[in-house]
Amino acid sequence: MEKGSGEEDARHTEAEVEAVYRAESRRVLATLIRLLGDFDLAEDALQDAFAAAMGKWPVEGVPKNPRAWLVSTGRFKAIDALRRRARFDARQGELARRLIEQAPPPPDLPDDGPLEDDRLRLIFTCCHPALPTPARIALTLREVCGLTTEEVAHAFLVSPATLAQRIVRAKSKIRDARIPYRVPERRELPERLDAVLHVVYLVFNEGYSASAGDELARPELSAEAIRLGRLLLGLLPEPEVMGLLALMLLQNSRRAARSTESGELVLLPDQDRALWDQEAIREGVGLVERAVRAQRFGPYTLQAAIAAVHAEAPSAEETDWAQIVALYDVLIRIEPSPVVELNRAVAVAMRDGPEAGLERVDEILARGDLRDFHLAHAARADFLRRLGRASDAHGAYARALELARQEPERSYLRARIAELEGGE
């Protein structure tokens, strides 16, 4: 084989390994945690398995089932590591012996299995009631979905160091309390479900609108959240599970229309609705209708109902804004929050005009709520612009730009500021 061809093959295999890592690493990690019973040991095994893949796959070729190969390799790498540590700690040797005696993983791991999915088991483990709620969410986002510590820290508005300590404590609690790695029994599911739904929705949100960085979205996270939502629905077909899956499908249906080819942000009123995914809309609307008929729905179903009204409207102008405001009124009663109030203010502005919306946003900001939330200032700026108050709008857009961390949003805000400056 010519040298150039060999180098090209090596680069191709390296790209394949990287692709497998992006697609499968979290599933491999979840299975290793089940097999090894320890988060840190499994994480080390995952890295060792991919390091081995980088060394062997260019020579031997990519195996038929890369995930099964990685799980098997990671398990044996962990056993080897425990044997080496046994020279200093006899307990490590005992653990290695137990792992050897356990049945090895099957040679061909299935891609999915609603009740047997290791990632679903891992979510319920991370969301165990023995853990504080912030720790449940942080641990799941970090371990199940692979968000970096920095990304999770931003979601919690804490420093990465604080977040890292929170995750370490959560892992220690799982280990010391011997929290089982399993899907709860059906009688246990309802009390555990709220935290799990919250986690899945946070994962979806990070994918649908990235908290920071150069990209508007991270589609792989949105797709993963939807996959987990489907698994949950198969496990527990409760109205709020239907509502969450519907909400994710309806929001994700707009993904192709949310940005231009160059990556610029396109707001909902300006989107080309012909690009919306009609199949996802039909499925989402059907789930909303099922959840509403159950008459035991909650905040996710109400948000999905709002998204369904948007999805079925031919244009922003023809949207039933009165119905959306009414749905927000119900949502505020059952789950009050300043962000819901902000969204309602935007709907009120579409129904009654920008002055009505501005009045409500100013009330929210006057309380101190959302003072550092860029979307509140961006909404206020838009109302001021529509009212012809260019100078005030300029200041509000500038404040929103100061707070925004996602580059497509920052680019959008800079363009609005430039328009105002050009009109002066």
Sequence-ordered SSE layout with sheet pairings:
Layout: H1 3-36, H2 39-60, H3 66-85, H4 90-101, H5 118-126, H6 133-143, H7 149-156, H8 160-176, H9 189-208, H10 219-235, H11 239-252, H12 278-294, H13 299-312, H14 321-334, H15 338-352, H16 354-366, H17 374-386, H18 390-403, H19 407-423
Q: How many E strands?
A: 0
Shape: globular
H/E element order: HHHHHHHHHHHHHHHHHHH
Helix content: over 70%
What is the residue-mean pLDDT, rounded to a whole number? 86
Sheet with most strands: none
How much of the sequence lies in strands comes to: under 5%
End-to-end gap: 67 Å
Q: Which structural class do you get from the secondary structure elements? A: mainly alpha
If you had to describe this structure to a student in words, what would you say it looks like?
It is a single chain. With 424 residues, the protein is mainly α. It contains 19 helices and no strands. Helix 6 (133-143) packs across helix 9 (189-208) and helix 11 (239-252) packs parallel to helix 13. It is globular and about 75 Å long. The N and C termini lie far apart (67 Å).
Features:
mainly alpha, 424 residues, 71% helix
Give a brief description:
71% of the residues lie in helices and 0% in strands.
